[in-house]
Design a protein that fits this description.
This protein has about 160 residues and is α+β, with helices and mostly antiparallel strands. The protein has a domain at about 35-140: Nuclear Transport Factor 2, Chain: A. The chain has helices at about 10-55, 70-75, 80-90; strands spanning about 95-105, 110-125, 125-135. It has a three-stranded antiparallel sheet. Helix 1 (about 10-55) packs antiparallel against helix 3.
Length: about 160
């Protein structure tokens, strides 16, 4: 019996299927990594905004320094509680990743809140570290836009005109 190389299709098919499975696995792992990184980044952004409003409430309007008495009186706004809120926000949302540390601090000049979340992503025996940062300007209540108060009895605003 003469063999005409019929087994070559089996070998080529095995190599091609293995390559396709490997590439598909890499795409899935990359998707999980991107998902976890985006969840960490969005949480850092939300915490920085939350922290910026919190710090702005505790800033003394005259001097611009932090009023530590106001910070102590509002225990629900302490940085440790904001960090705990970050852990609660991330609970159950990461596919393969984990969070190792959340840190919240003010910038060097005190105009921004800096949030840093450090985490990791494990693929088998490999550990890929992930660190995301977010910053938000500190909003003081005086800086936020307000509606002007209507003048009392002013005819130019239509207030106080006689009905008749």
């Amino acid at each position: 019996m003469k063999w005409k190389g019929r087994g070559s299709y089996t070998v080529e098919g095995t190599v091609i299927i293995c390559c396709i499975c490997f590439i598909t696995g890499l795409i899935i792992v990359a998707g999980f990594y991107c998902h976890d990184r985006m969840v960490l980044q969005s949480t850092a952004d939300e915490l920085s905004m939350y922290g910026s409003f919190w710090t702005g409430r505790a800033v003394h309007p005259g001097t611009g320094e932090v009023d530590y008495e106001a910070m102590k009186s509002s225990a629900d706004r302490m940085p440790e509680v904001i960090e705990e809120k970050g852990y609660q926000m991330l609970e159950g949302k990461l596919l393969w990743g984990h969070v190792s540390d959340i840190s919240i601090e003010r910038s060097l000049f005190g105009t921004e809140i800096l949030v840093e979340i450090q985490g990791g992503f494990s693929v088998g025996q490999r550990q890929i570290d992930c660190r995301v940062e977010a910053a938000a300007m500190i909003f003081k209540s005086e800086d936020l836009p307000r509606r002007p108060k209507p003048e009392q009895g002013g005819a130019e605003n239509g207030v106080g005109e006689p009905q008749g």
